[in-house]
Amino acid sequence: MATRRRRRIKICFSVSALFLIIFATVIVTLSFTIFRPKDPEVSLHLVDLEKFQFFTPNSTSESLGLVITVVNKNYGSFKSRNSIGYLNYRHIVVAKVPIETKVIPARSKMNVSTSAGIMTNKFMSDPMFWSDIEAGALNLTASVTLPGKVSMIKILKLKAMVNISCNIYFNLSAVKADSICISKIKM
């Protein structure tokens, strides 16, 4: 009777160990393939450029609308916290851009609207500004670090950080801007 009982316990432990090994293998495989974090695709669009003026009398700040398009290719959603982005001209911060808390759902595309209070006097203080105006183009950079949490299958929540940097080419004669953005996610 005792040998039957021991035999049943051994079989139970063996089956349990086998299921545990299979489960661990599946989790490890999924984490290295499907659930591996992918960098989001980000693009930056300047809006209402026609209304923007560098040379406003008695004003040191001019508002510029921005739309940030984020494509989340991951199987987890990302919830960011309030952050501040920076717009630079030749390594001089010319605007601080508030980014509000947002949830970007898994495998989706989202537009985030905000505005930048451009400090036009900072542009004019740079000696190269006037030569850029004569050339008809300005090169700007934008950067932001978004701290937040990634939620996988509404169960697993991990801290994450998304770093975004964009190069913006502002064509003054055509009154349009093009941007190239690079983003990296760190878990």
Overview features:
187 residues; alpha+beta; seven-stranded antiparallel beta sheet; three-stranded antiparallel beta sheet; 10 strands; 24% helix; transmembrane helix; Late embryogenesis abundant protein LEA-2 subgroup domain-containing protein
| Helix-strand topology string | HEEEEEEEHHEEE
Shape: rod-shaped
How many β-strand stretches? 10
Identify low-pLDDT runs. none
Distance between the termini: 54 Å
Helix percent band: 10-25%
Structural class: alpha+beta
SS element count, helices: 3
Alpha-carbon Rg, integer: 25 Å
* Range of strand content: over 45%
Main sheet attributes: strand count, strand direction, barrel closure: 7 strands, antiparallel
Mean pLDDT: 89
Mind explaining what this structure looks like?
The protein is α+β, with helices and mostly antiparallel strands and 187 residues long. 24% of the residues lie in helices and 50% in strands. The protein has 3 helices and 10 strands. The protein has helices at 2-32, 120-125, 129-135, and strands at 41-47, 62-72, 76-80, 83-89, 92-99, 103-104, 108-118, 137-152, 156-171, 176-186. Strands 3, 4, 5, 6, 8, 9 and 10 form a 7-stranded antiparallel beta sheet that branches. Keywords: Membrane, Transmembrane, Transmembrane helix. The chain crosses the membrane at residues 12-35. InterPro entries: Lea14-like_2. This is Late embryogenesis abundant protein LEA-2 subgroup domain-containing protein.
